[in-house]
């Protein structure tokens, strides 16, 4: 069961070698993972939208889409058709080329990043030896394309949304990148497969002290990187109407939507790979473990969306620069110390240092942490 | 130095940005526009623009019999139609000197307090919606509001446009299973409130977003004749139920919560505490409600034939503690069956006048939640 | 694989395009863009040599990394200067910024 | 199998072509916003060239730093300095043609010089991994590494002061 | 920054999520077209006219009180006339413009003849905006039984009152008839002093079938 997809892959390659000329067979062999990702990406995106709507509905005690298809299962298809048939309005004074280019440019990195994720034991599209760095580089480029979308649609609201989103993405990119460094220091290589192999059985990194803190920071920054509540400032409906994608409709809006949800999947997949031991797990086949962990993280992100109000721009920045960044630096040092020392002593020292830093950071941010209030009553009879 | 002839004239010279939020905007509670001048993200100038929902309510009332404009008062503050009827009925009864039997007074108080629960629950839901919580609090609020609206429909015939009050009492008596259902509601509501508070009150993001935002100082509140929860959140203990003792409010024991900072968080939390007090009033009212007829003989006659209800010439101003503030009706009669002058003192309109003073220096998202915390309904603002 | 001199042709053309841009652009940011292109051309050269001829291939790549970081730093300062020029003189066209003091 | 190598060779030349096209657009387009975008295209093209030359670490760093960092700076400056609805004016000043000729001459000289010099090509092509770069950065190149760190901090402070002080001055 | 309050909030939403699967009072959505909510008795939607036996003679006597009292003035009545042009106690046309009516129930209260009541029917979508929603008399008329079906308590109360008025009218009619007969006999006895014939048929004399003179009301 574990190597199911790998056997399918081999079978296709054997069939291709038997039938096609050899160079064609090699091309087919290369193309299988690409086709798999090209199907897997959009399909996950479609069904993630459905899962999100169903989950949020249940949190709010209502049913969620159940009219189209048996339990609303065909709803994503209906949305897709609607998006395709909707008229595509381009504002008259907008920058036509950039307006068209932005959604395409945003989807490319979202798809490219799938190549680096280890879906299961030797089920990875391209085993780059700079896997994680490639992922971070790709997610870095989305900032630029979001801003082109905002600037090209030539409207005040999207401009404000664009500026906010760039500021947020940059200030969360640094803790995002640096919180992975401890894992790289301990594993010694960028490649995602190596990282997963370094967490055999149940020795996931999340159970080490620096791993827990790293997981917390990495997950928070991942939520911010993907612009989801409580950091969904750029497309804050209540203030900026729809942030940078106000002026998009029809298929272009669908592309933004697709990119957002694919990012949600890939980012939680990376968090699962780096901190929760990718496809490592006791009994179940490897790819089941991988999907299980990724989907729990996605459900947590959706749970956030159902519960939290939005952070204001300056609080959001303050949280990144004045809390997360310092914690990441200390985390790197603690990981190094943990790596050097042996036996249980390292866990204790690492945990001690981390707790001290968290307390100290809380003291520094005292002014911002709100206090509970008690209220008195008049006319108390 | 010699001024160069510049090729391109910059229009970004003062770095300020003129943005108009509304009238077609997802979070302005109806058709209300704010012309905001922004420097970066902080608000430099804010001009509210109203009047999109003006329906000429007061001129209409002058060409209609007194009872004819009672259904129109439901449309003033379309969330609490019962309290609008209550205030109008009080004003006309003061004008014409009509007595109201005890049972009718109790029914009126029960309806008023139920409307207060509906209004405050809805407001907290929409305030959280402006803060960005994606519809979860609103839908919890709607789930509870449904129970109360079912009670209204059972008694008055319509969920939101009740048209239930008549001069001298109420249109019809309570249905047999109205009181048991109110008792059951009184049991469950505190449990819902505790769950609502657990979700919201200690939520750090909410506290961070709303504390010290949109502070309304006590003096400004009093001088701008602000009334209702906004005034009490700024620390002024003024509640018309306790000041005027209208209807039978002095028979019930209840307290009035007071805030000190007067910011958005206080206004939110005062409304939660007020809901708990309303439940106490409902509890006592449901226990002590006497039997008897629900409308005085005189009132029933006029309800049957409103055209020959000719109060003697004179004027009267009846006011109540509506969920949004002091809702008053000023009625002037010249002896005919049509009022000579009819004016509504709308609380949200007057509370809206100081929106700019509270928003200066804040960011755009803060202006949205300050507007949300004032609790305006455009039907009442524009009349 | 392709021979070394093809890559060198590519990087030199890239360099010349950057040079042309740097010298003929009227918009200050345009000039900065061209300078970035010239730096990239140099990087390509370095990497090509490290791959084909370099004695210690690592040095060239480390050198390329230093160039990238310092290019980033230079770009940051340059753009800050451009902003201040714009704020004081309301223009970012090179032929209008010809006074040493304002 | 030679079909595959032919395809990959064509692929490399396509990357070269796209990068050069991007560079030319970046240099000649009138609308500065489009020029910035084509610069992004050039940078990504150069990163692709690094990948082709088996320098993945450098390619990833290039994308991370250049496209993720410097491009944002360029776009921000472009946004802050142009007016919405600003009509584009001729981009190049009068020295356009002489510079073009000079650049072409220089290019010709480069090409001739590259063609003539006998490159001492090693037998097997070197591949450098991220670990090697990391180690050498901290061992042989420790001094430049620290120096760059100092320079970066200085620049950080400098830029903030440059941009910030005017902000304050303008206000008073 | 992230403290306990945030976790408590998430616990609440999780509880809601889980309970909405098995707790009845959590999940209150009713899937409208298939399942419907029980209608409240006093629910008032648009008004309708009521007729006792035949749709030709509705209870409404075209007294125009409801048209005058209606706040948005959406009722227009034209009184019927017989051949010679004498106005009759029946409306020729009685139309309510449903697009203007705000179902406030004032017409039901002020109608002295209990002829107009508020209906429970709310699925009234039409295609045209102007004429379609202007309900004429034939679309407004509904039998007494419909009123009894939708509003039992009010219907019984009103039927009782009508019955009482009916009996009072009949009794008054009989009294008047008896008085007239007594007067006639007195006149006859005075004139002929003939022994008065026992009108044994009087007690079980059937009520005149003709409709009682209206002015007795």
Summarize the structure in words.
The complex is a heteropentamer of chains A (381), B (383), C (102), D (172) and E (217). With 381 residues, chain A is mostly helical. Chain A has 14 helices and three strands. In chain A, helix 2 (22-59) packs parallel to helix 12 and helix 4 runs parallel beside helix 11. The longest helix of chain A has 38 residues, at 22-59. The model of chain A has no long low-confidence stretch (mean pLDDT 86). Chain D is mostly helical and 172 residues long. In chain D, helix 1 (2-28) packs antiparallel against helix 2 (32-52) and helix 2 packs antiparallel against helix 3 (56-81). The model of chain E is unreliable at 196-217 (pLDDT under 50). Chain E has a domain at 43-142: Alpha-Beta Plaits, CATH 3.30.70.3270. Chain E is built from six helices and six strands. With 217 residues, chain E is of the alpha+beta class. Strand 3 of chain A pairs antiparallel with strand 6 (256-258) of chain B. Chain B: It comes from Candidatus Abzuiibacterium crystallinum. Chain B: InterPro entries: NADH_Q_OxRdtase_suD (IPR001135), NDH1_su_D/H (IPR022885), NiFe-Hase_large (IPR029014). Chain B: Residues 130-383 form the NADH-quinone oxidoreductase subunit D domain.
Lay out the secondary structure.
The complex is a heteropentamer of chains A (381), B (383), C (102), D (172) and E (217).
Chain A (H helix, E strand, L loop, with lengths): L3 H16 L2 H38 L15 H11 L10 H17 L5 E3 L2 E2 L6 H22 L3 H23 L2 H7 L4 H6 L11 H17 L11 H4 L10 H25 L10 H22 L5 H28 L4 H20 L11 E3 L3
Antiparallel strand pairs in A: 1-2
Helix pairs in contact in A: 1-2, 2-3, 2-11, 2-12, 4-5, 4-11, 5-6, 6-9, 6-13, 7-13, 9-11, 9-13, 11-12, 13-14
Chain B lengths: L15 E6 L11 E7 L2 E8 L7 H6 L7 H5 L6 H16 L5 H30 L4 H21 L8 E2 L2 E2 L7 H23 L3 H7 L7 H6 L5 H5 L6 H4 L12 E3 L5 H25 L8 H8 L9 E9 L2 E9 L5 E7 L1 H6 L2 H5 L4 H11 L3 H5 L1
Antiparallel strand pairs in B: 1-2, 2-3, 4-5, 7-8, 8-9
Helix pairs in contact in B: 3-4, 4-5, 4-11, 4-15, 5-6, 6-11
Chain D lengths: L1 H27 L3 H21 L3 H26 L14 H21 L13 H9 L3 H30 L1
Helix pairs in contact in D: 1-2, 2-3
Enzyme class (chain A): translocase
InterPro entries (chain A): NADH_UbQ_OxRdtase_su1/FPO, NADH_UbQ_OxRdtase_su1_CS
Subcellular location (chain A): Cell membrane; Membrane
Question: Nutshell version of this structure?
Answer:
The complex is a heteropentamer of chains A (381), B (383), C (102), D (172) and E (217). Helices cover 77% and strands 0% of the residues of chain C.
Order of helices and strands of chain C: HHH
Strand order of the largest sheet of chain E: 4-1-6
% residues in beta strands of chain E: 5-15%
Q: Describe the largest sheet of chain E.
A: 3 strands, mixed
Give the structural class of chain E.
alpha+beta
Number of helices of chain C: 3
- How many individual β-strands of chain C? 0
Poorly predicted sequence stretches spanning 5 or more consecutive residues of chain C: none
Query: For the largest interface in this structure, which chains are involved and how many residues does each contribute?
Result: C-D, 71 and 82 residues
DSSP strand tally of chain E: 6
Based on secondary structure, the structural category of chain C is mainly alpha
Runs of chain E in which pLDDT lies below 50 for 5 or more consecutive residues are 196-217
Broad shape of chain C: elongated
């Amino acid at each position: 069961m574990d190597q199911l997809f790998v056997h399918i892959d081999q079978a296709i390659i054997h069939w291709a070698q038997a039938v096609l000329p050899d160079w064609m067979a090699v091309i087919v062999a290369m193309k299988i993972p690409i086709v798999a990702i090209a199907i897997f990406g959009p399909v996950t995106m479609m069904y993630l939208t459905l899962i999100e709507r169903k989950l949020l509905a249940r949190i709010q005690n209502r049913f969620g889409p159940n009219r189209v298809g048996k339990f609303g299962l065909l709803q994503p298809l209906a949305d897709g058709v609607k998006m395709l048939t909707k008229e595509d309005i381009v504002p008259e004074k907008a920058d036509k080329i950039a307006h068209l280019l932005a959604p395409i440019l945003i989807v490319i990195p979202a798809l490219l990043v799938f190549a680096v994720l280890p879906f299961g034991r030797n089920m990875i599209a391209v085993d780059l030896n700079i896997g994680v760095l490639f992922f971070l580089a790709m997610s870095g480029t989305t900032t630029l394309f979001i801003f082109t979308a905002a600037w090209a649609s030539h409207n005040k609201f999207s401009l404000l949304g664009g500026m906010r989103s760039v500021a947020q993405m940059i200030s969360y990119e640094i803790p995002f990148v640096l919180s992975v460094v401890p894992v790289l220091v301990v594993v010694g290589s960028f490649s995602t497969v190596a990282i997963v192999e370094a967490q055999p059985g149940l020795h996931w990194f999340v159970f080490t002290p620096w791993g827990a803190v790293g997981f917390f920071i990495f997950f928070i920054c991942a939520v911010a990187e993907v612009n989801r509540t409580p950091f969904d400032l750029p497309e804050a409906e209540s203030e900026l109407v729809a942030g940078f994608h106000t002026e998009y409709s029809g298929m272009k809006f669908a592309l933004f939507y697709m990119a957002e949800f694919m990012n949600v999947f890939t980012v939680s997949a990376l968090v699962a790979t780096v901190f929760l031991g990718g496809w490592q797990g006791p009994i179940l086949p490897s790819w089941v473990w991988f999907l299980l962990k990724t989907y729990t993280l996605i459900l947590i992100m959706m749970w956030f969306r159902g519960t939290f109000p939005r952070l204001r721009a300056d609080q959001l920045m303050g949280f990144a620069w004045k809390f997360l960044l310092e914690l990441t630096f200390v985390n790197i040092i603690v990981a190094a110390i943990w790596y050097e020392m042996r036996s249980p002593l390292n866990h204790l020292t690492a945990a001690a240092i981390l707790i001290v830093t968290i307390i100290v950071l809380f003291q520094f941010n005292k002014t911002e942490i709100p206090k509970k209030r008690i209220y008195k009553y008049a006319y108390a009879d | 130095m010699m001024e160069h002839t510049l090729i391109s004239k910059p229009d970004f010279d003062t770095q300020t940005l003129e943005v108009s939020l509304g009238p077609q905007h997802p979070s302005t509670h109806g058709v209300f526009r704010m012309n905001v001048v922004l420097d970066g993200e902080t608000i430099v100038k804010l001009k509210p623009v109203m009047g999109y929902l003006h329906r000429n309510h007061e001129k209409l009332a002058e060409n209609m019999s007194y009872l004819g404009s009672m259904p129109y008062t439901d449309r003033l503050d379309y969330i609490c139609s019962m309290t609008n009827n209550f205030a109008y009925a009080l004003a006309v009864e003061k004008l014409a000197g009509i007595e109201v039997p005890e049972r009718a007074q109790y029914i009126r108080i029960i309806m008023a307090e139920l409307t207060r629960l509906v209004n405050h629950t809805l407001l907290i839901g929409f305030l959280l919606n402006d803060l960005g919580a994606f519809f979860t609090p609103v839908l919890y609020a709607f789930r509870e509001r449904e129970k109360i609206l079912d009670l209204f429909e059972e008694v008055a015939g319509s969920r939101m446009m009740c048209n239930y009050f008549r001069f001298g009492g109420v249109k019809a008596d309570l249905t047999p299973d109205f009181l048991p259902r109110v008792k059951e509601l009184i049991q469950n509501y505190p449990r819902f409130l505790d769950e609502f508070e657990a979700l919201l009150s200690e939520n750090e993001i909410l506290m961070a977003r709303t504390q010290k935002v949109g502070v309304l100082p006590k003096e400004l509140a009093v001088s701008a004749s602000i009334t209702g929860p906004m005034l009490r959140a700024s620390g002024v203990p003024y509640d018309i139920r306790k000041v005027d003792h209208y209807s039978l409010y002095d028979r019930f024991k209840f307290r009035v919560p007071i805030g000190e900072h007067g910011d958005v968080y206080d206004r939110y939390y005062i409304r939660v505490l007020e809901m708990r007090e309303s439940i106490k009033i409902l509890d006592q009212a449901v226990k002590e409600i006497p039997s008897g007829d629900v409308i005085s003989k005189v009132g029933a006659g006029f309800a049957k034939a409103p055209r020959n209800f000719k109060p003697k010439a004179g004027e009267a101003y009846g006011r109540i503690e509506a969920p949004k503030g002091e809702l008053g009706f000023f009625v002037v009669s010249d002896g005919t069956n049509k009022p000579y002058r009819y004016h509504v003192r709308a609380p949200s309109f007057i509370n809206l006048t100081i929106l700019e003073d509270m928003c200066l220096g804040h960011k755009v998202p803060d202006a949205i939640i300050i507007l949300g915390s004032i609790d305006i309904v455009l039907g009442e603002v524009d009349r | 694989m392709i021979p070394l001199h093809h890559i060198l042709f590519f990087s030199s053309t890239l360099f010349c395009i950057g040079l042309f841009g740097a010298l003929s652009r009227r918009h200050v940011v345009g000039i900065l863009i061209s300078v970035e292109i010239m730096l990239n051309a140099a990087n390509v050269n370095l990497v090509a040599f490290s791959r084909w001829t370099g004695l210690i291939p690592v040095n060239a790549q480390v050198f390329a990394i230093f160039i990238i970081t310092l290019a980033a730093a230079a770009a940051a300062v340059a753009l800050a200067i451009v902003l201040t020029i714009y704020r004081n003189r309301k223009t970012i066209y090179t032929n209008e910024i010809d006074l040493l003091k304002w | 199998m030679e079909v595959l190598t032919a395809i990959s060779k064509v692929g490399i030349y396509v990357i070269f072509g796209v990068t050069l096209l991007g560079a030319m657009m970046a240099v000649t387009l009138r609308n500065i916003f489009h020029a910035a975008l084509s610069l992004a295209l050039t940078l990504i093209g150069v990163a692709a060239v690094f990948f082709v030359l088996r320098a993945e670490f450098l390619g990833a760093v290039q994308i991370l730093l250049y496209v993720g960092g410097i491009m944002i700076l360029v776009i921000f400056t472009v946004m802050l300095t142009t007016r919405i609805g600003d009509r584009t004016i001729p981009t190049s000043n009068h020295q356009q043609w002489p510079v073009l000729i000079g650049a072409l001459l220089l290019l010709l000289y480069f090409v001739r010089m590259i063609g003539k010099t006998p490159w001492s090509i090693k037998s097997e092509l070197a591949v450098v991994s991220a670990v090697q770069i990391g180690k050498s950065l901290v061992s042989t190149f420790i001094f430049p590494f620290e120096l760059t760190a100092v320079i970066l901090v200085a620049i950080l402070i400098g830029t903030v002061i440059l941009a910030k002080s005017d902000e304050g001055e303008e206000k008073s | 920054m992230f403290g306990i309050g945030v976790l408590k909030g998430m616990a609440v939403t999780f509880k809601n999520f889980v309970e909405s699967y098995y707790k009845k009072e959590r999940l209150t959505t009713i899937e409208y077209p298939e399942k419907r909510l029980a209608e409240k008795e006093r629910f008032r939607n648009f008004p309708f006219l009521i007729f006792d036996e035949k749709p030709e003679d509705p209870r409404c006597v075209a007294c125009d009180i409801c048209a005058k009292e209606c706040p948005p003035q959406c009722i227009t009545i034209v009184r019927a006339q017989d051949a010679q042009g004498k106005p009759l106690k029946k409306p020729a046309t009685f139309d309510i413009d449903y697009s203007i009516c705000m179902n406030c129930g004032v017409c039901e209260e002020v109608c002295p003849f209990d002829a107009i009541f508020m209906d429970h029917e709310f699925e009234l979508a039409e295609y045209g905006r102007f004429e379609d929603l202007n309900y004429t008399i034939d679309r407004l008329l509904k039998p007494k039984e419909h009123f009894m079906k939708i509003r039992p308590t009010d219907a019984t109360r009103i039927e009782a009152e009508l019955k009482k008025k009916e009996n009072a009218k009949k009794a008054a009619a009989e009294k008047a008839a008896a008085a007239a007969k007594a007067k006639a006999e007195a006149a006859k006895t005075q004139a002929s002093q003939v022994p008065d014939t026992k009108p044994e048929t009087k007690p079980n004399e059937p009520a005149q079938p003709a409709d009682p003179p209206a002015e007795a009301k």
